[in-house]
Amino acid sequence: MEKLRPNEIADALEELVFTGEFRDGDRLDEITLAARFGVSRTPIREALQRLVVSGLAEQLPRRGVFIRQPGPVELMQMFETMAEIEAACGRLAAVRISESALDGLEETNARCQAAVTAGDVDGYYRENQRFHQVIYHETGNSFLENEALRLNRRLSPFRRVQLRWRGRMSQSMAEHETVVRALRDGDAVLAADTLRSHVAVQGEKFHQLVSSLRMAAQ
Amino acid sequence: MEKLRPNEIADALEELVFTGEFRDGDRLDEITLAARFGVSRTPIREALQRLVVSGLAEQLPRRGVFIRQPGPVELMQMFETMAEIEAACGRLAAVRISESALDGLEETNARCQAAVTAGDVDGYYRENQRFHQVIYHETGNSFLENEALRLNRRLSPFRRVQLRWRGRMSQSMAEHETVVRALRDGDAVLAADTLRSHVAVQGEKFHQLVSSLRMAAQ
DNA sequence: ATTGAATTTCTTGTATACAAGATCATTGAC
DNA sequence: GTCAATGATCTTGTATACAAGAAATTCAAT
After folding, report:
1. Distance CA B211, CA B195 (A)
2. Interface contacts (A, B; CB < 8 Å)
3. Which nucleotide lies closest to A62 by the C1' atom and the CA atom?
């Protein structure tokens, strides 16, 4: 394995958390990781720091850093926050989006629709991501764009699950079309409200999922 | 000086940036800082990493980390984002805030008003901060609360300046009172809109300031 | 057998040594 | 005198050594 730099190591670790190789509560042992990545503890420690700052892991002094996946409550809060940020992006994009970007959104939506009819969850996921990222970008506010991307990325492993809900993809599609119409009309309020509930429903689906698991456990 | 831990060092460095001891573009020399804080380079490097991740500094590989204050454009984007986040907080707080918190907000506003009549800028600043932080908290969403606090803190050195604008404090006061009324009425839209423009105007004031400086320079 | 204390071992946190790249200065050519 | 090239110096980045605290194990006493 070629030698990775600390931020590449951090990305790799992040990926390992997302893919589920590291589970909630796992301790990230410096020595083991150093051996695994073929470097000394120093760059590993820097990478771990990045994970801690980004909220994916927690550091207990003199005890190590542990993977910390958000629990149901925190997850709901994160989805709610994402919903508000998406709404803000829609609000700003409604008055700033370019014609070409609007056309691009409609093309993306067409590919989304194709994925829905084909039952292609991965394809839908990819085009859905693109749809939202275009809106972030069309806020014309790269700071907000980055904040949106950051939280979007953090939630992506959880968002993916709930696409498999029956009928969710087609409902999601309908919402996308409302968003594009609102953006084309420059209707900031409609764009914001539609995007907010579009994302908020994901949190609610998750809540239902967790609740049903609780029920089943009793 | 007692020995500080890396995150305490990071806080101290952040403070030094805010107080202006470190200026935009300054290189944060590891050896100098190590001597200054009486530790080795290792904890200094960890602290610097935190600054970089939080966006206060930029790291150029093999060249060092440099203080990176936001320029006019980025600052405007940050204020705009803050405005949207405050609006979101107002929206959520409007339906969740407790009676006691509402009473607390009115007390805070009274102290704000006292500071305005006394021309006490520092006092106003402090109570104004408290006002906003209560609203963040009353969203009942600690994740959003933390995001709001983070950005608020990042903008605080710039927000402080524009309070000295003539008539700004009293106008700001009036906006606070509208916010409290909206929250008491559970009027989510009014709370959100008022808070948004309350914060957005700060960015605009800054824009004016920068523009006038540009003019003067020519 | 179980509990509790003491010791050993292991891990993190810090300091220092070493490697590699960047900056700066000196020197030589034009 | 200016510019370029080469070498010295300094800084960052990584590895390793050492210090200090936490966990685990052992062993004795009940």
Report:
1. 25
2. 64
3. C12
Look at residue B194 and tell me whether its pLDDT is greater than 70: yes
Q: Which residues of A touch B50 (CB under 8 A)?
A: 49, 53
- Chain B hits for A78, Cβ within 8 Å: 143
For B16, residues 6+ apart whose C-beta sits below 8 A from its C-beta are B22
Distance (Å, whole) CA A39 – CA A65? 18
Residue ranges of domains in chain B, CATH in brackets: 6-67 (1.10.10.10), 72-217 (1.20.120.530)
Q: Whose CA is closest to B66, among B15, B5, B13?
A: B13
Answering whether pTM is above 0.80, one says yes
Structure tokens at B127: 């109570």
Burial class of residue A65 (count of CB atoms within 10 Å of its CB; 0-12, 13-18, 19+): buried
Q: Which two tokens stand for residue B138?
A: 């009353």
| Residue whose token pair is 């503890």 | A41
Residue partners of A92: CB distance under 8 A and separation at least 6: A139, A140, A141, A144, A188, B80, B84
Query: Amino acid identity of B32?
Result: T
CB neighbours of residue A103 within 10 Å: 11
pLDDT digits (tens, 9 = 90+) for A96-121: 999 999 999 999 999 999 998 898 88
Q: Any idea how long chain B is?
A: 218
Q: What are phi and psi of B85, to 5 degrees?
A: -70, -40
Nucleic strand C interface residues, CB < 7 Å:
A 27-31, 41-42, 45, 59, 61-64; B 3, 5-6, 39-43, 46, 62-63
